[in-house]
């Protein structure tokens, strides 16, 4: 039985960041809300935009933190503590430098890989790394000194279309996750490559 009760999409707040690569996780949660007829509204006590949807008969909470990326854990912990949701019932969607645009992966647990949002969430959940992740590939600029600028800029149009196709596919794979379990969802999503669908 799929245990997920809370799905979080990471990004930075404000219109200047809305279309930057670092906000890929937030795009995914917004797409889930759209697909399942949910509304996201700002909720101060959870430091973010929240909503509820039903996916295959299961009640799921959605959260896009309104904090900056490196304080994402503040929002996640506030909601998890309030609703008594354990880390292993949380799925966090985030941009992933180590995957190319057009690819995405589900996984459970692991380190933060230098991602400031994941780092803060792990710390805020009592150093638990047991939450699920949805890694949305954005590619790598080539050198670590370029990463900060890269994630905070908009992808060029061809790359953006790959990112959007991947977010759409990830949202559909989430339906499979709730209906058929993680293994089938992983099989579907990990076989997908938006680059090959053009």
UniProtKB/TrEMBL annotation:
Residues annotated as the enzyme's active site: 22
Family the UniProt entry places it in: Belongs to the PTH family.
Binding locations of tRNA: 17, 68, 70, 116
Record-given protein name: Peptidyl-tRNA hydrolase
Subunit structure: Monomer.
MF terms in GO: peptidyl-tRNA hydrolase activity; tRNA binding
Site (Discriminates between blocked and unblocked aminoacyl-tRNA): 12
Physiological role: Hydrolyzes ribosome-free peptidyl-tRNAs (with 1 or more amino acids incorporated), which drop off the ribosome during protein synthesis, or as a result of ribosome stalling. Catalyzes the release of premature peptidyl moieties from peptidyl-tRNA molecules trapped in stalled 50S ribosomal subunits, and thus maintains levels of free tRNAs and 50S ribosomes.
Positions bearing the site annotation: Stabilizes the basic form of H active site to accept a proton: 95
UniProt keyword list: Cytoplasm, Hydrolase, RNA-binding, tRNA-binding
Main location: cytoplasm
Record organism: Zobellella endophytica
SUPFAM superfamilies assigned to the protein according to its UniProt record, in alphabetical order: Peptidyl-tRNA hydrolase-like
Gene name in the database record: pth
Lineage: superkingdom: Bacteria
InterPro entries in the cross-refs: Pept_tRNA_hydro, Pept_tRNA_hydro_CS, Pept_tRNA_hydro_sf
């Amino acid at each position: 039985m799929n245990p997920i009760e809370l799905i979080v999409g990471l990004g930075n707040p404000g219109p200047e960041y809305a279309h930057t690569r670092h906000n890929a996780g937030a795009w995914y949660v917004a797409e889930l809300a759209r697909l399942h007829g949910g509304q996201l509204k700002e909720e101060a006590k959870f430091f973010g935009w929240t909503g509820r949807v039903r996916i295959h008969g299961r009640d799921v909470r959605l959260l896009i933190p309104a904090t900056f990326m490196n304080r994402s854990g503040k929002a996640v912990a506030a909601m998890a503590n309030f609703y008594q949701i354990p880390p292993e019932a949380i799925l966090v969607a985030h941009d992933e430098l180590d995957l190319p645009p057009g690819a995405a992966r589900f996984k459970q647990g692991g380190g933060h890989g230098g991602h400031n949002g994941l780092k803060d969430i792990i710390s805020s959940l009592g150093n638990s790394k047991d939450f699920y992740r949805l890694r949305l590939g954005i590619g790598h600029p080539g050198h670590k000194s370029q990463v900060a600028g890269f994630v905070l800029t908009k992808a060029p149009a061809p790359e953006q279309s790959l990112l959007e196709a991947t977010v759409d596919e990830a949202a559909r794979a989430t339906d499979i996750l709730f209906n058929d379990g993680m293994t089938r969802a992983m099989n579907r999503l990990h076989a997908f490559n938006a680059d090959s669908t053009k």
